[in-house]
Amino acid sequence: MAKKDVNEMSFLDHLEELRWHLIRCVIAVMIAATVAFLLKSFIFDTLIFGPSKSDFLTYDLLCKTSQLLGFDSFCNTNFNFEVQSRTMAGQFSAHIWTSITFGFIIAFPYVIYELWKFISPAMHDNERKHSKGFIIISSLLFFIGVLFGYYIICPLSINFLGTYSVTDKVHNDFDLNSYIGLIRASVLASGLIFELPIIIYFLTKVGIVTPEILKTYRKYALVVVLILAAIITPPDIASQVIVAIPILILYQISIYISKVVVKNQRKKAKANG
User: Fold this and answer.
1) CA–CA separation, 31 vs 23, rounded Å?
2) Could you tell me if residue 252 is inside a domain?
3) How far apart are CA 159 and CA 81, in angstroms?
4) For residues 171, 172, 174 and 179, what is the CA-based torsion angle, rounded to 10 degrees?
5) Sign of CA dihedral 161, 231, 187, 66
6) Percent of the chain that is helix, strand, coil (3-state, to 5)
7) Which residue range(s) make up the domain with 187?
8) From 65's CA, which of 13, 72, 181, 207 has a CA 20 to 30 Å away?
9) What is the DSSP letter of 79?
10) Is the pTM of this model over 0.90?
11) How does pLDDT run across 111-146, given as a tens digit for each residue?
Protein backbone atom coordinates (compact mmCIF):
# COMPACT_ATOMS: atom_id res chain seq x y z
CA MET A 1 0.00 0.00 0.00
CA ALA A 2 1.43 3.36 -1.05
CA LYS A 3 2.14 5.84 1.69
CA LYS A 4 -0.34 8.74 1.78
CA ASP A 5 0.76 12.28 1.10
CA VAL A 6 1.03 14.32 4.28
CA ASN A 7 -1.63 16.76 3.02
CA GLU A 8 -4.07 13.90 2.45
CA MET A 9 -3.65 12.34 5.88
CA SER A 10 -6.39 12.73 8.46
CA PHE A 11 -5.81 13.34 12.17
CA LEU A 12 -6.19 9.61 12.85
CA ASP A 13 -3.70 8.84 10.07
CA HIS A 14 -1.17 11.13 11.76
CA LEU A 15 -1.80 9.39 15.08
CA GLU A 16 -1.28 6.00 13.46
CA GLU A 17 1.95 7.23 11.87
CA LEU A 18 3.14 8.61 15.22
CA ARG A 19 2.27 5.30 16.92
CA TRP A 20 4.58 3.35 14.60
CA HIS A 21 7.40 5.83 15.10
CA LEU A 22 7.00 5.48 18.88
CA ILE A 23 6.91 1.67 18.61
CA ARG A 24 10.19 1.68 16.67
CA CYS A 25 11.69 4.02 19.29
CA VAL A 26 10.64 1.67 22.10
CA ILE A 27 12.09 -1.33 20.24
CA ALA A 28 15.42 0.49 19.77
CA VAL A 29 15.54 1.46 23.45
CA MET A 30 14.73 -2.11 24.52
CA ILE A 31 17.47 -3.56 22.31
CA ALA A 32 20.02 -1.13 23.74
CA ALA A 33 18.68 -1.79 27.26
CA THR A 34 19.18 -5.53 26.75
CA VAL A 35 22.82 -4.93 25.86
CA ALA A 36 23.20 -2.75 28.96
CA PHE A 37 21.49 -5.43 31.07
CA LEU A 38 24.09 -8.00 29.98
CA LEU A 39 26.94 -5.60 30.84
CA LYS A 40 25.92 -5.50 34.50
CA SER A 41 29.45 -5.52 35.96
CA PHE A 42 30.70 -2.65 33.79
CA ILE A 43 27.50 -0.60 34.18
CA PHE A 44 27.39 -0.79 37.97
CA ASP A 45 30.96 -1.33 39.19
CA THR A 46 32.63 1.06 36.74
CA LEU A 47 29.97 3.63 35.77
CA ILE A 48 27.27 3.82 38.44
CA PHE A 49 29.58 3.55 41.43
CA GLY A 50 32.53 5.30 39.79
CA PRO A 51 31.68 8.75 41.24
CA SER A 52 31.46 7.24 44.74
CA LYS A 53 35.16 6.34 44.67
CA SER A 54 37.66 8.88 45.99
CA ASP A 55 40.02 8.21 43.06
CA PHE A 56 37.36 9.13 40.46
CA LEU A 57 39.23 11.22 37.88
CA THR A 58 36.88 14.22 38.18
CA TYR A 59 37.76 15.01 41.79
CA ASP A 60 41.35 15.94 40.98
CA LEU A 61 40.13 18.19 38.15
CA LEU A 62 37.50 19.81 40.38
CA CYS A 63 40.12 20.37 43.08
CA LYS A 64 42.40 22.23 40.66
CA THR A 65 39.46 24.19 39.16
CA SER A 66 38.19 25.31 42.55
CA GLN A 67 41.72 26.42 43.53
CA LEU A 68 41.84 28.59 40.40
CA LEU A 69 38.59 30.19 41.55
CA GLY A 70 40.12 30.87 44.95
CA PHE A 71 38.46 28.03 46.85
CA ASP A 72 39.68 24.75 48.30
CA SER A 73 36.88 22.34 47.48
CA PHE A 74 37.03 18.65 46.49
CA CYS A 75 40.71 18.36 47.48
CA ASN A 76 40.17 16.02 50.44
CA THR A 77 37.58 13.63 49.07
CA ASN A 78 36.94 10.75 51.43
CA PHE A 79 33.69 8.78 51.36
CA ASN A 80 32.54 6.78 54.33
CA PHE A 81 29.04 5.79 53.30
CA GLU A 82 27.50 2.49 52.23
CA VAL A 83 24.84 1.76 49.63
CA GLN A 84 22.28 -0.87 50.65
CA SER A 85 19.23 -2.55 49.16
CA ARG A 86 16.44 -2.90 51.70
CA THR A 87 13.77 -4.62 49.60
CA MET A 88 13.62 -8.13 48.16
CA ALA A 89 13.40 -6.95 44.55
CA GLY A 90 15.51 -3.83 45.11
CA GLN A 91 18.63 -4.92 43.24
CA PHE A 92 16.75 -6.56 40.38
CA SER A 93 14.50 -3.51 39.98
CA ALA A 94 17.53 -1.22 40.01
CA HIS A 95 19.16 -3.42 37.37
CA ILE A 96 16.10 -3.24 35.10
CA TRP A 97 15.52 0.52 35.35
CA THR A 98 19.21 1.35 35.05
CA SER A 99 19.39 -0.76 31.88
CA ILE A 100 16.37 1.07 30.44
CA THR A 101 17.99 4.43 31.26
CA PHE A 102 21.19 3.40 29.51
CA GLY A 103 19.10 2.02 26.64
CA PHE A 104 17.45 5.42 26.15
CA ILE A 105 20.81 7.23 26.25
CA ILE A 106 22.40 4.83 23.76
CA ALA A 107 19.38 4.86 21.43
CA PHE A 108 18.85 8.64 21.64
CA PRO A 109 20.16 9.36 18.09
CA TYR A 110 17.69 6.83 16.67
CA VAL A 111 14.85 8.28 18.76
CA ILE A 112 15.66 11.72 17.35
CA TYR A 113 15.83 10.22 13.86
CA GLU A 114 12.31 8.78 14.24
CA LEU A 115 11.08 12.16 15.51
CA TRP A 116 12.62 13.85 12.47
CA LYS A 117 11.03 11.29 10.13
CA PHE A 118 7.63 12.09 11.63
CA ILE A 119 7.86 15.89 11.29
CA SER A 120 9.95 16.11 8.08
CA PRO A 121 7.06 15.39 5.64
CA ALA A 122 5.42 18.62 6.83
CA MET A 123 8.53 20.64 5.98
CA HIS A 124 9.33 22.37 2.71
CA ASP A 125 12.09 20.79 0.62
CA ASN A 126 14.51 23.57 1.52
CA GLU A 127 13.72 23.25 5.25
CA ARG A 128 14.09 19.47 5.08
CA LYS A 129 17.47 19.85 3.38
CA HIS A 130 18.83 22.22 6.03
CA SER A 131 17.40 20.28 8.98
CA LYS A 132 19.23 17.01 8.30
CA GLY A 133 22.02 18.11 10.59
CA PHE A 134 19.44 18.34 13.38
CA ILE A 135 19.93 14.65 14.25
CA ILE A 136 23.70 14.95 14.56
CA ILE A 137 23.70 18.26 16.44
CA SER A 138 20.92 17.33 18.90
CA SER A 139 22.56 13.95 19.59
CA LEU A 140 25.94 15.59 20.10
CA LEU A 141 24.48 18.16 22.51
CA PHE A 142 22.63 15.43 24.42
CA PHE A 143 25.76 13.29 24.82
CA ILE A 144 27.82 16.31 25.92
CA GLY A 145 25.11 17.07 28.49
CA VAL A 146 25.11 13.45 29.69
CA LEU A 147 28.90 13.51 30.11
CA PHE A 148 28.67 16.86 31.92
CA GLY A 149 26.06 15.44 34.27
CA TYR A 150 28.08 12.30 34.93
CA TYR A 151 31.54 13.83 35.30
CA ILE A 152 30.57 17.15 36.93
CA ILE A 153 27.13 17.19 38.56
CA CYS A 154 27.21 13.63 39.93
CA PRO A 155 30.60 14.04 41.68
CA LEU A 156 29.55 17.45 43.04
CA SER A 157 26.35 16.02 44.50
CA ILE A 158 27.89 12.82 45.83
CA ASN A 159 30.85 14.68 47.32
CA PHE A 160 28.50 16.94 49.27
CA LEU A 161 25.62 14.63 50.16
CA GLY A 162 27.86 11.61 50.80
CA THR A 163 29.95 13.46 53.37
CA TYR A 164 27.27 15.68 54.92
CA SER A 165 26.42 14.91 58.52
CA VAL A 166 24.28 16.58 61.16
CA THR A 167 25.99 14.65 63.93
CA ASP A 168 28.65 11.95 64.34
CA LYS A 169 25.98 9.68 65.80
CA VAL A 170 24.34 9.27 62.40
CA HIS A 171 26.10 7.10 59.82
CA ASN A 172 25.25 7.52 56.12
CA ASP A 173 23.74 4.34 54.66
CA PHE A 174 22.00 5.18 51.39
CA ASP A 175 19.31 3.16 49.69
CA LEU A 176 20.34 1.73 46.31
CA ASN A 177 17.39 3.27 44.46
CA SER A 178 18.08 6.66 46.07
CA TYR A 179 21.72 6.58 44.97
CA ILE A 180 20.92 5.45 41.41
CA GLY A 181 18.07 7.98 41.23
CA LEU A 182 20.57 10.77 41.92
CA ILE A 183 22.84 9.53 39.11
CA ARG A 184 19.93 9.09 36.70
CA ALA A 185 18.37 12.49 37.41
CA SER A 186 21.71 14.31 37.12
CA VAL A 187 22.63 12.67 33.83
CA LEU A 188 19.24 12.90 32.08
CA ALA A 189 18.51 16.44 33.31
CA SER A 190 21.89 17.64 32.03
CA GLY A 191 21.36 15.92 28.69
CA LEU A 192 18.00 17.66 28.24
CA ILE A 193 19.30 21.06 29.44
CA PHE A 194 22.00 20.92 26.77
CA GLU A 195 19.24 20.65 24.16
CA LEU A 196 18.44 24.33 24.84
CA PRO A 197 19.86 25.60 21.47
CA ILE A 198 17.70 23.06 19.59
CA ILE A 199 14.60 24.08 21.55
CA ILE A 200 15.28 27.78 20.91
CA TYR A 201 15.76 27.02 17.21
CA PHE A 202 12.28 25.50 16.88
CA LEU A 203 10.63 28.12 19.11
CA THR A 204 12.14 30.82 16.90
CA LYS A 205 10.98 29.01 13.75
CA VAL A 206 7.37 29.09 14.94
CA GLY A 207 7.63 32.69 16.13
CA ILE A 208 7.30 32.13 19.88
CA VAL A 209 10.84 33.36 20.64
CA THR A 210 12.91 36.15 19.07
CA PRO A 211 16.51 37.31 19.67
CA GLU A 212 15.13 40.51 21.19
CA ILE A 213 13.11 38.56 23.74
CA LEU A 214 16.15 36.45 24.66
CA LYS A 215 18.30 39.58 25.06
CA THR A 216 15.64 41.41 27.07
CA TYR A 217 15.27 38.56 29.52
CA ARG A 218 18.98 37.69 29.65
CA LYS A 219 19.40 39.18 33.15
CA TYR A 220 16.39 37.19 34.35
CA ALA A 221 17.83 34.10 32.65
CA LEU A 222 21.03 34.66 34.64
CA VAL A 223 19.04 34.55 37.88
CA VAL A 224 17.17 31.42 36.73
CA VAL A 225 20.46 29.73 35.79
CA LEU A 226 21.96 30.50 39.19
CA ILE A 227 18.84 29.16 40.92
CA LEU A 228 18.95 26.06 38.71
CA ALA A 229 22.62 25.58 39.52
CA ALA A 230 21.82 25.91 43.21
CA ILE A 231 19.09 23.26 42.91
CA ILE A 232 21.04 20.61 41.01
CA THR A 233 24.31 21.14 42.88
CA PRO A 234 25.28 21.29 46.56
CA PRO A 235 25.18 24.72 48.32
CA ASP A 236 28.80 25.38 47.45
CA ILE A 237 29.81 28.50 45.49
CA ALA A 238 32.49 26.73 43.48
CA SER A 239 30.03 24.00 42.45
CA GLN A 240 27.40 26.52 41.37
CA VAL A 241 29.88 28.51 39.30
CA ILE A 242 31.17 25.36 37.57
CA VAL A 243 27.62 24.33 36.62
CA ALA A 244 26.33 27.82 35.75
CA ILE A 245 29.09 28.67 33.23
CA PRO A 246 28.21 26.09 30.52
CA ILE A 247 24.48 26.83 30.88
CA LEU A 248 25.12 30.55 30.34
CA ILE A 249 27.26 29.70 27.30
CA LEU A 250 24.39 27.61 25.92
CA TYR A 251 22.01 30.54 26.45
CA GLN A 252 24.32 32.86 24.53
CA ILE A 253 24.62 30.31 21.71
CA SER A 254 20.82 30.11 21.65
CA ILE A 255 20.62 33.89 21.11
CA TYR A 256 22.98 33.59 18.13
CA ILE A 257 20.96 30.69 16.69
CA SER A 258 17.74 32.70 17.08
CA LYS A 259 19.37 35.61 15.22
CA VAL A 260 20.37 33.34 12.33
CA VAL A 261 16.86 31.85 12.07
CA VAL A 262 15.18 35.27 12.05
CA LYS A 263 17.68 36.59 9.51
CA ASN A 264 17.01 33.65 7.17
CA GLN A 265 13.25 34.06 7.56
CA ARG A 266 13.48 37.76 6.64
CA LYS A 267 15.61 36.96 3.59
CA LYS A 268 13.08 34.36 2.48
CA ALA A 269 10.15 36.73 3.03
CA LYS A 270 11.93 39.46 1.08
CA ALA A 271 12.69 37.09 -1.79
CA ASN A 272 9.08 35.88 -1.95
CA GLY A 273 7.74 39.43 -1.63
Assistant:
1) 12
2) yes
3) 11
4) -170
5) negative
6) 75, 0, 20
7) 12-75+82-164+171-266
8) 181
9) -
10) no
11) 988 888 877 666 666 656 656 677 888 899 999 999
